[in-house]
């Protein structure tokens, strides 16, 4: 977006806002000007001065920012600090995944990377914020619950989960797809959730995986993402690095950037391995990708319940159903195909593990599976010698089975 001087009415820069307002006969120049100033100020806060900028083939700009200047260190409790050294990994950890290095993102295809001492951050643009419902809600999920949600929430899941113990981390491998999302207000994602608190105002979550979200990213590419909240998605937390929270330590991966390649129906399957675990010494929650690539950590002080441990772990898919025209959405989950189609056609999670009190990875005990709307998105689990605990999940949304 081209930024015009504030004295030139800003018509070109915020034409989407003005056009909509004019169409509704609610054009208020002063109000729109204040909104635009808020957007510019927010973009300036998020985009730190880069040492280097890399142009991605999909149009993203990846800024290489000095690690101690990243957005996390705007937090009052982090000002003046630097990222911590990595902790000891959980016992029994064997890095795995067919995405075997840190060049699985589109912006790395040119061979460029960020220099040592910096972190790779996807630049936020004004149009990104204009797609959000407000500047305040930019980068946040709607205030929703996860599992046990009411049917009217619009969020639908197909998940495997464990509950009833104390969990200090989780690990799984999941294959990456590019599901169709039928409305800009909807998304489709596959992720790991670490959850504590009650499904109300004090819910704590840590989340990581891949998602397609046209509203957040402006396209339909699957992107690697993180999320956290300490108050059930109300006022705390955000995606990726769009607020002070997650501290990135990696200069080769940009959280929020597009993943390439992705799995193909009856073709090649590409999966990534994710590990989230709690550092026994400092209590921070660390994130590792693929074959031992550390991305960074969520400081323990961000949370209330998760400052101790998780009480539930979930693996699986989630979509938003806005019920266009009063019908179920045709937004796909996973590959867009039902679990029964199996390998190469359905989405999967495999090698499900949790971290116990002794910082050891163990197979998921007593895995349960649940699909909120099994006619639309279903799930089937199992266990075998090669994959350990696993499940297939997903579906097409609106179809002859789902209406």
Automatic annotation (TrEMBL):
Keywords: Signal. It comes from the Eukaryota. Residues 1-19 form the signal peptide. Pfam families: Neprosin, Neprosin_AP. Residues 77-101 are annotated as: Disordered. Residues 149-403 form the Neprosin PEP catalytic domain. Gene3D superfamilies: Outer-capsid protein sigma 3, large lobe. InterPro entries: Glutamic_endopeptidase, Neprosin, Neprosin_propep. This is (wild Malaysian banana) hypothetical protein.
